[in-house]
Amino acid sequence: MKRSRLCGRIATLAWLLPAAAVVPVGWAAAPVSAATLTVCPSGCQYTQISTAAAAARDGDTIRVGPGRYRGGVRIEASLRLAGAGPRSTVIAGGGHVVTVGAIGAAREPVVSISGVRITGGVARSSPVSAPFTGRGGVLAGGGGVEIPPQAISAEGVPSGGATVVISGSVIDGNRADPAHTVPSGLPCAARCPFALAAGGGIESWGRSSPR
Fold first, then answer.
1. What is the value of pTM for the model shown?
2. pLDDT band (50, 70, 90) for residue 135
3. 91/113 Cα distance (integer angstroms)
4. Backbone dihedral region for residue 189 (phi beyond 0: left; psi -120 to 50: alpha; all else: beta)
5. Rounded Cα gap, residues 154 and 104, in angstroms
6. Cα–Cα distance between 174 and 188 in angstroms, integer?
7. pLDDT tens digits, residue range 108-130?
8. Sorting pLDDT into bands at 50, 70 and 90, what band is 189?
9. For FRET with 6, which of 16, 24, 132, 172 sits at 20 to 30 Å CA-CA?
10. Is there a contact between 161 and 150 (Cβ–Cβ < 8 Å)?
């Protein structure tokens, strides 16, 4: 299923052209002990972005050299992720190439991402799929970047989410491809199943707006 540009109640989407941004609402003050973590194929502290992101703390900067790195990156700290440019630093693959924040987080991060290409993600589900449909994988989004809500109410209403700015980057070649369907409720019954693919590039429930 090809990525969709559908916007509406199901998903709040932010679309990037090859060099565009999601504007931050604010930036958390960096602690005095903020560190710079380096990532490159050899000779750096880390060889993969995901391991650097797991080790990072609020206020840290992750500097990524030229190379192709595995997707499936999860960012849960307030940090800056800076690549060497979208032609040089590529993050590829994974169900969601980059996920910022998490459902149930006590506090959502403020994150800046620049100078990278995010590509090759295939989202088979969305964090809001089960609350809306009763089954995971019926709604799919965020093949490139997933910014989940901080909370989902008992009525299935999402709220909160990370604040993210993406600049000088390319997000392309990502898809949303739901894993399951449910009956649509239309008269054609089983012959008219329902699934939704939205936000193949970005699915954002966080505090962001296009510039």
1. 0.79
2. confident
3. 12
4. left
5. 13
6. 32
7. 999 999 999 999 999 998 888 77
8. low
9. 24
10. yes
